[in-house]
Amino acid sequence: MDPGPAGAAGPAEPGPGVRGAGPAAPASSLAVAAVLPAGGSGERMGVPTPKQFCRVLERPLISYTLQALERVCWIKDIVVSVTRENMEVMKDIIQKYQHERVSLVEAGVTRHRSIFNGLKALAEDQPDSKLSKPEVVIIHDAVRPFVEEDMLLKVATAAKEHGAAGAIRPLVSTVISPSADGCLDHSLERARHRASEMPQAFLYDVIYAAYQQCSDYDLEFGTECLQLALKYCHVKAKLVEGSPDLWKVTYKRDLYAAESIIKGMFGLVTLSSCVSEM
Ligand SMILES: Nc1ccn([C@@H]2O[C@H](COP(=O)(O)OP(=O)(O)OP(=O)(O)O)[C@@H](O)[C@H]2O)c(=O)n1
Ligand SMILES: O=P(O)(O)OC[C@@H](O)[C@@H](O)[C@@H](O)CO
C-alpha cells in the first residue's frame, strides 16, 4: 500500500479537530493509553486500499486520527493494531508524519480480536515491552479522525469513575427488527435509543478482564466493547453524548465528507487519491 506520494506531507498542522486551547487534562496521576484498531479491510468502502490507509488530501486517513490523539498530552501510549501485511506501510506513515508514542501490534481477524491484541500489549507482564499498564485505556477506531480532546477527556474521566464510558449519538433512522419471513416484526422507539460511537474508555483492568473471559462467539461477531464490560464484568458504562463529527468512515461518501471537513480548515481543493480512483 502506498502511504502517499513522497514529500506530500498533506495538510500541515493544525489538523482536524483543532479548537483553540484544549480542556484541562485529567489528574496528572491518571495513566491513560489508547488502543486504535486499524486491522480491517474496509470492504464496505469498495476500493482495494483498506480505508484507514486511503489518502485524504494526500495524507492517509489513520494519520489524521493519530494526529488527533497525539495532540492530547495526557495520553501516554498509542497502540495500533495492524495486519502483518500492512505493518511496513504503517511504519512508513509513522516515520513520514513523525507520529510519536505509537506502538504497533498485529491485528486479529475481527475488530474485537484486534482490540484484545492491543490490550495485551499494555498488560504489565509483557516481556521486553516499553509500554506500561495504564489505569484507563481509550479505545478508538482508527477511521474516526475527528475526535477532540474534550471528548477524550470526558470518556476517560467517566471511565475512571464508572469503570467504562462511551460516546453516543442520537439515531438518524429508526431501528426495526425483521421477522424470519423478512417482514417487520417490530420497531424500536427511536427517542429511547442511541447510536454507540467512539471513543470509549475503560478502567484497563475491567476491559482486559472482559476480553480475557470473552467467548469465541463474542470475539468473532461482537461489535460493542461496552457490552463486553457489562456482560463479563457487570460494569455499566457511562454514556456520553458526542458531537456529530465522531462518525466512522465506512463508505466512499464518508471519504468525501472527511475531505470536505479537512478542506474547510485549509481551503484546499484536492480530490483524495481513493476518491479520485473511484
Ligand atoms: N479485523 C479487524 C476489523 C476491523 N478493525 C478496525 O476496526 C475499526 C472499525 O471497524 P470497521 O469500520 O468495520 O472497519 P472494517 O472492518 O475495515 O470495515 P468493513 O466492515 O467495511 O470491512 C476500523 O478502524 C478497522 O480497521 C480491526 O482493527 N481489525
Ligand atoms: O466493525 P463495525 O464498523 O461494524 O463496528 C464498529 C462499531 O460497532 C463501533 O465502532 C461502534 O458501534 C462502537 O461500539
What are the segments in which pLDDT stays under 50 over at least 5 consecutive residues? 1-20
- Structural shape: globular
Q: Can you count the beta strands?
A: 11
What is the CATH class?
Alpha Beta
Please identify, by name, the CATH architecture: Alpha-Beta Complex
Strand order of the largest sheet: 5-4-1-6-10-7-11
Q: Describe the sheet with the most strands.
A: 7 strands, mixed
Describe this protein's structure:
Helix 3 (111-122) packs across helix 5 (204-213) and helix 5 (204-213) crosses helix 7 (225-233). It is globular, with a radius of gyration of 18 Å. It has a single domain (30-168, 195-267), classed as Spore Coat Polysaccharide Biosynthesis Protein SpsA, Chain A, CATH 3.90.550.10. The chain has helices spanning 61-70, 87-96, 111-122, 149-162, 204-213, 216-221, 225-233, 252-266, 273-277; strands at residues 32-37, 55-56, 59-60, 75-82, 102-106, 136-139, 164-170, 176-178, 184-187, 194-203, 238-241. The chain is built from nine helices and eleven strands. A seven-stranded mixed beta sheet has the order 5-4-1-6-10-7-11, with helices on both faces. It has a two-stranded antiparallel sheet with strand order 2-3. With 278 residues, it is of the alpha/beta class. The two termini are 17 Å apart. The structure holds cytidine-5'-triphosphate and ligand A1H0Z. The site of ligand A1H0Z has 9 residues, from strand 10. It is found in: Cytoplasm, Cytosol. It is an enzyme of class 2 (transferase). Keywords: Cytoplasm, Nucleotidyltransferase, Transferase.
